[in-house]
Amino acid sequence: MEDGDTYTSPSEYVPGTTLRQGLTIAGRFTVEKLAGRGGMGFVYRAIDSRTGQPVALKLLHAVTPEAAYRFKREACLLSELRHPAIVSYIDHGVIEAGQPFLAMEWLEGEDLARRLSRQPLGLSELLALLRRITEALATAHRQGIVHRDIKPSNLFLRGGRPEDVVLLDFGLARHAVPTLVALTATNAVLGTPGYMAPEQASSQSHITPSADIFSLGCVLYECLTGQPPFAAPHFAAVLAKILMAEPPRLHTLRPGLPPGLQVLVDRMLDKDPQRRLPDATTLLESLAALDSDPTLLSLPAPPSEPSSVRATHEQQLVSVEQQLVSILLVSLRPLVTGKLEEDETHGRSLRDALRTMLAPYGGRVELLADGSLAATLVLERDTATDQAALAGRCALTFKERWPDAGVVLVTGLGVLNQSLPVGSAMDRAGQLLRELEGPSASSALVVLDEVTAGLLGPGFQLSRSAAGSYLLHGEQLGTDESRPLLGKPTPCVGRAQELALLEFTFTSCMEEPAARALLVMAPPGTGKSRLRHEFLRRIERRVPQALVLLGRGDPMSTGAASNLLGQALRRLCGVVEVVNLEARRTRLYERVAQHLPLAEARETAEFLGELCAIPFPEEESPRLRAARQDPRLMNALVSKALVTFLRAECAHDPVLLVLEDLHWSDALTVKLVDEALRELAEHPFMVLALARPDVKEFFPGLWARRVLEMPLSGLSPKAGAQLVREVLGARATDSVVRRVVEQSDGNALFLEELIRMEVEGRGEAPPETVLAMLQARLMRMEPEARQVLLAASFFGRTFWPGGVRELLGGQVPDGKLEEHLRRFVQQEIIEPQPESHFPSEAEYRFRHALMVDAAYGLVPGAHRPVGHRLAGAWLESRGESDAMVLAHHYQLGQRPERAAHFHTQAAEQLFERHDLQGTMRCADAALACGVSGEVFTRLRALQALVALSMEQLPRALELGTPVLPALKAGTQLWCRLTAGLILANGFSGNQEETARLGGLLLRTRPGPEAVTVYAAALSQLGSASFWNGGYQRAEAMLERIQEVGADVMAHDAITRGWMRLLKSQLIHFFENKPWQAFSLAEMGTRDFLEVGAERDACMTQIISGDCLTELGDQPRAVECLRGALATVLRTEQHLMASHGRYFLLHALSQGSEPAHQQEACALAHEWMDSEDTPPFSRGMGYAIVAQALGAQGEFHEAEAFARKACELLSPFLVCLLFARGVLSSILLSQERAEEARQVAELGVQELERMGSTGVYAVPLYLALAEACLALGEVSAGESALRRASRYVHERASDIPDATARERFLRQVPHNARTLELARQRWGDSEPG
């Protein structure tokens, strides 16, 4: 035993528990406190009695031979190392209870992981940390020690200083010599996922210092980008990414980094140890080289704004693409025995078995460090459904052989490079595997993602798990089998002609009788299987005695002898699930002998057994023995046996042989069927084959002269619409039907997936299953042609050859590019446009939006920014006028300064078009790019105006108030914002701020281009002023409009319209000229509409509607206001909508129809129930409801509403007049005349202070008169009544039309009531 290896400690210590404070270890280290704990032990802060210094005391509590060995090795290795950046060794030993301990220097600070979670490192800090930790590793590497667990939590920042970093935890360190210990006995990986080198992730035995370089590269990457280079939901998926995937380029996550860092990270993260930097000494040399060239570590200059497009080598879109990949991830955890060598051997044998299974199809398989298997499959020349079917069969085969293994299968995109193609699909696989290994999960079935489930055809039996994933049970094939849609068989639509031909062919077979063959050809997804299913259902109903033989081609066994026929016969005989060979022979013989003599049945069964892979013994059959020695003889006798069997069956009942996916068959099957058709020419025998068009390439001259070909076209739009409506029912709106049918393009599978997504609420998102099928189609193209479409997809659905050429950087010659485009037109992928956005450029359009998504999806995320930068620069050079388009490209191209510029332009353009949501979206996007100064001010002003338009008054004030002083006074934007803030303050009751802004507006002289906007601002300020009772201020605004607009009023209809709007409101609310107010409002409407200013005309129409209410024309008023309000809502003028609603409520409440009264109450309640509604609007709502309740006799509730209205409307004096009149009437109806008089008197006083004889004068004087008369105050009552009567007559005298005047006197309730009371008091001769 080495000196110092054994130490004593108090015997009361129990292993696995913590040490008590004050305990002394080895007579030297006194425990102060527990500092941390892990899975294997505890770390304490202790005091070293020899030095008086604190130490970190690490105590192992899980003492197994392996753990103790590693712990002691850590102590020994650490004792050999001396460097300021390596934690210092002090002592080690074993306490009396048997627990090993290790004493190291005590460090104050935090580890790098904690620092990164709190705050990223600056570039200079990072470089200092990198140099220091590399120096520490160089010390270890020179002594042959590999750390093997470099990660942020093992890098400690002494005092929180990155330049004083210390390397911790040598628990996994080893000398760089081969060893067989890669895993623990419990199959736990030694290392940290996400930071392991590929050689660690694949359980290689020899780990060199370059593994530390890889791990340090992962740390460097995370410090630079804020995320690990390899992250996934499951340990196995992380390991697979380390082995197979490249991390995103640094500049895609953090633009503007020094170029030398990308080169350094690339060399550190190279998956091949031979190409990677071999050790820390070499890394130090690389860092020195970076230091020697300042340009490599200096920040790149910001890119200049492009005046022209230069397609340099660095700018060009790299010819790299993603591919559709199916990934099998297999967890062998349930198969682990705990015996290391046995588990490793078993894992390798399973890996080799899976490799053998996938090798013919180019599949790749890796055994990961945690014992999991990762397999990838890419079929370059087949469809997505083929790939999914093949992968599904592989998964089922593996599961059948090793039922306890957990198997998940996903399909998605990955980058194809010299390693395996993986990407987001691996993340999905990891997520599913993690769910599969959960405590409540069952691994009895293969687990699928949604994409794979959608691609698997009806031949596979699927179900849905409780977690939402899909479970693969097995394969199926039968007459009743069809692809379910929403749990039900898919309705068969649009195939009436095809079904009629199939039924006619089968009928003619029976009636003549005669052999017939019919070949249905169509691309995948067109609906061949659905057609077959419907045809067999009809045969089953019409000719139940017919014998139906079913066989399906399989890509896993393409070319295998007679696979379709053998499958059909095995299924007929019921031997599919029978394992025992003798039982299978018996079943085959019994079925063959049903209609054959016994002597003939024996030999027929023997040779059909060769076809079905059910071999019979040859001892008693010389012909069978001879045939097995002679392939030609065997073929002849098998053919004879098949014909003999089929002839016997046809003699009893018609026979229908269905061969699905014939393109995956073999030549012998085709030959046997051809011979059967010839020999059974006069028998009721029909062959229905279904295949893709390339079946003619695989089998030239297929059944020549004996087969009728039936190409199957896509579903017609009418048939597609029928299916959508049948399945979706009431959810199938016309817009949904149009979108789904257009996207499906007649493809039945696409259509079903789109319908399914619509039901799941994902109708707007591109369906992944459909995209996968389209991407597989793209991958079957030649690479150059595919690159053209990938480049075109950057522009969206519309593109131009010049732009494509720019993105490809001249890689495709002009003539070749035009040739590709012509071919795409012929293939109906794109279509030329008659006119081009750019006159000098031809324009093309993808026929279907999903093809754009599919092509763009093949471009790796790391390569998309350069494509968008090139697209944006090319469009800008061609004079693209849509700023949003340019902003979109520069945003995705990671050029924030250019994106901000065009987002700002787009926000201003959208605001002019009154696209409020678009304005706010673009303004937010521009601000997110980090704008400042004048641009920031303009954007905030636009956001404030949008908030105002959406009736978000507090938000408008919060955004607009701080930036108004920074805008140039008198400009259009300043005028708009000032007017908006005046309205927001006015409707919020902020009278002082409203007055201040009003004064500022009046003192400002607008620029020539801003006169119209200035007039609008004054008109809005005037409105705010008179709502608050400021008649003189409003008149001043009117005079200012007339002064400023004097030179333009004659020819500027909008300025004229704003002037007439303000003037009509002043007359309406303050003067006794109702007809003049109405006429001015009508003229203002005509002014606005003269120049198409529909939005501005809404306000004058609203005033017209209220004038009509006051004139007694209630039906016309309601019609006018409904129309104006509809336009206001359509054009998103939310603040104006409040005015429109109020005046509509007022009009409805004045009518005699009960329906109008009920509607008024319902609309008012909507206002009152919303806390977001401004006080003005809520107050008017309360007043209207109070008036309606009073009319219904609900006086108590009406009074409460009226009082609430008066409270809310106290800042809005004009509206308060109306509320006081309502409250007074309600109080009088309750015989509370004194209170009624007090309220009415308040209203009259306010009316007289304002000098108003407008719309609310008569109701208030009438209320006061009635209250006084009820109290017996005759003089005061009659005085008020005379005033009311005089105003009625004066207002009537303003109406030139006799009919309208009579309506005004009789149909307006307060007018009629006033005249009736006057008549009661004085008869027809009213005193003056």
Taking the alpha carbons of the first and last residues, their distance comes to 129 Å
**Integer-rounded radius of gyration:** 43 Å
Whole-number mean pLDDT:
84
Question: Helix share of residues?
Answer: 40-55%
Overall SS class? alpha+beta
Q: Architecture of the largest domain in CATH?
A: 3-Layer(aba) Sandwich
Number of strands: 28
Fourth-tier CATH superfamily name of the largest domain: P-loop containing nucleotide triphosphate hydrolases
The proportion of residues in beta strands is: 5-15%
**CATH class group of the largest domain:** Alpha Beta
Largest sheet composition: 7 strands, mixed
Order the strands across the largest sheet as they lie in space. Answer: 13-14-12-15-16-18-17
Q: Write down the overall geometry.
A: globular
Poorly predicted residue ranges: 1-14, 177-189, 298-315, 417-421, 558-562
Number of structural domains = 10
- Quaternary structure: single chain
Could you tell me the CATH topology label of the largest domain.
Answer: Rossmann fold
Question: How many helices does DSSP assign?
Answer: 55
Overview of the molecule:
The strands form seven sheets. The chain has a seven-stranded mixed sheet, sandwiched between helices. Strands 1-2-3-4-6-5 form a six-stranded antiparallel sheet, covered by helices on one side. The protein is 55% helix and 10% strand. The radius of gyration is 43 Å and the shape is globular. It has ten domains: 82 residues, Phosphorylase Kinase, domain 1; 188 residues, Transferase(Phosphotransferase) domain 1 (Transferase(Phosphotransferase), domain 1), CATH 1.10.510; 154 residues, Nucleotide cyclase, GGDEF domain (Alpha-Beta Plaits), CATH 3.30.70; 217 residues, P-loop containing nucleotide triphosphate hydrolases (Rossmann fold); 63 residues, no CATH class; 85 residues, Winged helix-like DNA-binding domain superfamily/Winged helix DNA-binding domain (Arc Repressor Mutant, subunit A, Orthogonal Bundle), CATH 1.10.10.10; 83 residues, Serine Threonine Protein Phosphatase 5, Tetratricopeptide repeat (Alpha Horseshoe); 84 residues; and more. It has 55 helices and 28 strands. GO terms for molecular function: ATP binding; protein serine/threonine kinase activity. InterPro entries: AAA_16 (IPR041664), Kinase-like_dom_sf (IPR011009), P-loop_NTPase (IPR027417), Prot_kinase_dom (IPR000719), Ser/Thr_kinase_AS (IPR008271), TPR-like_helical_dom_sf (IPR011990).
